[in-house]
Design goal:
Strand content: 5-15%
Strand order of the largest sheet: 1-2
Number of domains: 1
CATH class: Mainly Alpha
Helix content: 40-55%
Oligomer: single chain
Length: 75
């Protein structure tokens, strides 16, 4: 699975924040729900437009972003 299939950035949607394709639900929204203790299953029930693969894509997106941020600049 590639997160690029499920996450998009559109300047006209949610101020250009990364969102789940076809929704206005941001990556940070989903991460906040997970951090707050919601399970993937609970998120999918509360937001029927989302599927488990959307939640997995959010996690993959966040992991990739973290890897990029934690790379030390060349000396």
């Amino acid at each position: 699975m590639s997160w690029q299939e499920f996450i998009t950035v559109n300047p006209g949607v949610r101020s250009g924040k990364p969102c789940i394709v076809g929704t206005r639900i941001t990556v940070s929204d989903v991460l906040d729900y997970l951090a707050g203790g919601m399970s993937e299953a609970q998120i999918v029930v509360d937001f029927p437009q989302l599927k488990p693969e959307h939640v997995k894509a959010v996690l993959a997106f966040a992991a990739e972003r973290e890897r990029r941020l934690s790379v030390s600049p060349a000396a």
